[in-house]
Design a protein that fits this description.
By secondary structure, the protein is mainly alpha-helical. Among the domains are: about 20-200, no CATH class; about 355-460, no CATH class. It has helices spanning about 15-20, 30-55, 60-80, 95-115, 115-120, 125-145, 150-165, 180-190, 195-215, 220-230, 240-255, 255-275, 280-290, 305-310, 315-345, 355-365, 370-380, 385-405, 410-430, 435-455, 470-500, 505-515, 520-535, 540-550, 550-555, 560-575, 585-595, 595-605, 615-620, 635-660, 665-680, 685-715. InterPro entries: DctM (IPR010656), TRAP_DctM-Dct_fused (IPR011853).
């Protein structure tokens, strides 16, 4: 490749197939079967888009909404995911058709009979019992196919605990085992499958998955990667730093570490290898940056919406509190990458090989606007689904009309005027929100401005077409991407139901507190281990639900503020996604990097561990969380000081992990780096002063050793 040739991201045409295979589906169907799946997926997306913008359909309550959400999800699971991988199916198996029809019948029965006397009184008929048992089996089997065995095993352990708890000793003993009560609570009340996790999936999560799928279909991934490469590509280890930034931006929106890793990794991993990173290191960097995107505002993947239900905070307050820790965690990954590049003397890319930032922004910088619109409506006080709906409206308008205006401006303007007029007519005739018409109008004007700007500067349009085919593909991809969350939240509801029915929810915090001996740091350490173990092989949403119900209340009981406790378990729940040996993102990128999955997973965990101690910092000293209850309590200089010392602690811990700063650390220097990082956990002026002194000492030693080595090297060559 010549130096004058520009490097620019091009999406892999087989990307969708890869994502599906890595998520557990290698079934590839064609013809009417593919059309059937496409139709159901589009129906699912359109239904959720409508409810986000206009509210629930008259006559459909929240429970009915969850039933429709779960039923469509289960039907798609059994049509898309085979009974096991490796069968190489090119058709939907006959038995999966039958199971899908059973799932459809169960959903219809639940919908039609939710107000029957037998359900309302708890006196189930035989048919009610059969449907309840069938639903439980369907949910667990769907979870096994999509998420894998770990979550099913955990759910089975919890179910066994419900029925065998009377054999255990206190404090785990309970005497509430009853089969009919179990299946009733799990299926016909809001205590089990149709509890908070599934409600959040139906109301909040799906609409943002749809937003992310459409945004990616418009070429946002290309924009993120090109901009990140332009900003960091020419520096030491540049492609890796670009991978961190672009994967973080995309990961916040997509909410799927696997899909994110494959999407950006298809391009960034070969570039990282090109400049000198080892295959497993390149894959590990992509794994770490893709997973941690779920902590980044403004969308924070799916778990942020669960936090709305489990904490007394609004969405705006949650993203405000998560912002500083998220930025610090990404600085940690960037610093890890920088030191890795320094260790192996890995350079960046020539500037001539990078796409112009001006060209990138002119081509598709308008795709940032929907994210700005999302934040605007959230801050203004609109509901989360409503804000996402308006963002999707302007996103679709921009995508469709930039493509239309590029082809023929005249006919495009005529269609645009008709559409805008129709949108305003719907406001006056059907009382649609005026914001819909405003978003359409703004989108049309911005699209026209972008196309005229491209022609004026003679910049070619972005090589991403967006027509009806791409729109429908985005709808289908959103439904497919949501299946992991749908089944995981349904199964997580079973876990929550068992915890509540057995009374474990009230006893577990006491057990943890007593075991920790009222030592907060010990309790936090136990929580870290629990997060990493419980989160093995689970999607972040399921991990967070389990930890929010089982562990977070114990931290709150020990004096940790609610927000800090939930961000603590969320952070380590995300880190669990990178924990070997069950590390789905690592398996996803190992094929691209041509590396061994376990070694790639170890590298992913390593690069994601730079800010490993950060949650300990904000759990014991909440200044950097900007908690609403702390408003006005701390001045900005105090906040800045705490951010600075937290950053110094991260730097020290990264040096410890990498065993390198300017030169390779000696044993005592590594211990000094670890001690420095630990000292910074406790936020007081005494410990901060000690930490700064220790870090200064470490840096001074490194400078002297580096200077001596350089001098000896020069002497040897002279």
């Amino acid at each position: 490749m010549s130096k004058k040739e520009e490097i620019s991201y091009q999406a892999d045409p087989e990307l969708e197939k890869k994502v599906n295979e890595l998520a557990g589906s290698d079934r590839s169907v064609r013809g009417w079967m593919a059309l059937l799946i496409l139709s159901i997926a589009i129906l699912m997306s359109l239904y959720h888009l409508y409810t986000a913008g206009f509210g629930l359909i008259p006559g459909i309550g929240t429970r009915s909404h969850m039933i429709i959400h779960l039923t469509l999800g289960l039907v798609l699971v059994f049509l898309i995911f085979p009974i096991k991988r490796g069968l190489g199916q090119t058709k939907i198996a006959w038995y999966d058709f039958i199971i899908a029809l059973i799932a459809l019948f169960v959903g219809y029965y639940l919908y039609a009979n939710q107000t029957s006397s037998s359900i309302l009184t708890g006196r189930m008929t035989d048919m009610d019992k059969v449907v309840a048992i069938t639903l439980l089996v369907l949910v667990l089997e769907a979870t096994r196919r999509v998420v894998g065995k770990p979550l099913v095993i955990i759910a089975s352990v919890f179910i066994a605990y419900f029925f065998l708890g009377h054999y255990l000793n206190p404090p785990f003993r309970h005497t509430r085992a009853n089969f009919e009560n179990f299946i009733y609570e799990m299926t016909y009340t809001t205590s089990g499958i149709f509890s908070t996790p599934l409600s959040v999936s139906a109301v909040y999560v799906f609409i943002f998955i749809l937003f992310g799928a459409i945004l990616e279909a418009t070429g946002a991934g290309k924009m993120f990667i090109d901009l990140a490469l332009r900003a960091f590509g020419k520096y030491k280890g540049g492609p890796a730093k670009a991978a961190v930034v672009s994967s973080g931006m995309l990961g916040s929106i997509s909410g799927s570490s696997v899909a994110n890793a494959v999407t950006t990794g298809t391009f960034t991993i070969p570039l990282m290898k090109k400049v000198g990173f080892r295959p497993q290191t390149a894959g590990g960097i992509e794994v770490a940056s893709s997973s941690s995107g779920q902590l980044l505002p403004p969308i924070m993947g799916a778990a942020a919406f669960l936090m709305i239900e489990y904490t007394p905070y609004s969405y705006a307050e949650i993203i405000r509190s998560a912002a500083i820790p998220a930025i610090l965690s990404y600085i940690a990954i960037l610093f890890m990458v920088h030191i890795e590049a320094s260790k192996h003397n890995i350079k960046g890319l020539p500037k001539e090989m990078l796409v112009s930032a001006r060209k990138t922004m002119i081509q598709h910088g308008y795709l940032i606007l929907p994210v700005i619109v999302l934040v605007y409506f959230l801050v203004r006080g609109n509901t989360v689904p409503n804000a996402a709906f308006f963002s999707i409206v302007i996103l679709l308008t921009l995508a469709v009309f930039t493509h239309r205006f590029r082809e023929k401006i005249g006919p495009g303007i005529i269609i645009a005027v008709i559409l805008a007029g129709l949108a305003y007519s719907m406001h006056f005739v059907l009382n649609w929100n005026i914001e819909i018409a405003v978003m359409v109008t703004i989108g049309i004007f911005i699209a026209l401005f972008v196309v005229l700007l491209q022609k004026s500067f003679k910049v070619d349009a972005a090589p991403v077409r967006f027509g009806m085919r791409e729109l429908l593909a985005g709808f289908e991809m959103a439904a497919r991407n949501s299946l992991t969350v749908v089944v995981a939240c349904a199964t997580a509801g079973i876990l929550i139901g068992v915890i509540n029915l057995t009374g474990l929810s009230a006893r577990l915090p006491v057990i943890i507190v007593n075991f920790a001996g009222d030592n907060l740091y010990l309790a936090l350490a136990f929580t870290l281990v629990a997060c990493l173990i419980l989160g093995l092989g689970l999607p972040t949403t399921a991990t967070y639900v389990i930890l929010a119900a089982m562990v977070a209340p114990a931290l709150v009981q020990m004096g940790v503020p609610i927000m800090a406790a939930h961000l603590f378990v969320l952070y380590y729940g995300i880190l669990a996604d990178d924990t070997p040996p069950i590390n789905l993102p690592a398996y996803a990128v190992s094929g691209i990097a041509n590396s061994e999955p376990i070694r790639t997973g170890i590298q992913g965990f390593k690069f994601d561990s730079g800010a490993l101690l950060l949650p300990f910092v904000f759990a014991t000293n909440t200044v950097i969380l900007l908690l609403p209850e702390n408003a006005g309590l701390y001045s900005w200089p105090v906040i800045a000081q705490n951010i600075f010392t937290a950053l110094l602690g991260i730097i020290a811990f990264v040096i410890f992990i990498q065993n390198f700063f300017l030169v390779k650390l000696r044993f005592y220097e590594r211990l000094l780096a670890l001690a420095t990082a630990i000292v910074f956990i406790h936020g007081s002026w005494v410990t901060d002063t000690i930490g700064i002194a220790l870090l200064a000492l470490l840096i001074a030693i490194q400078f002297m050793r580096k200077k001596k080595m350089d001098h000896e090297g020069q002497a040897a060559t002279s």
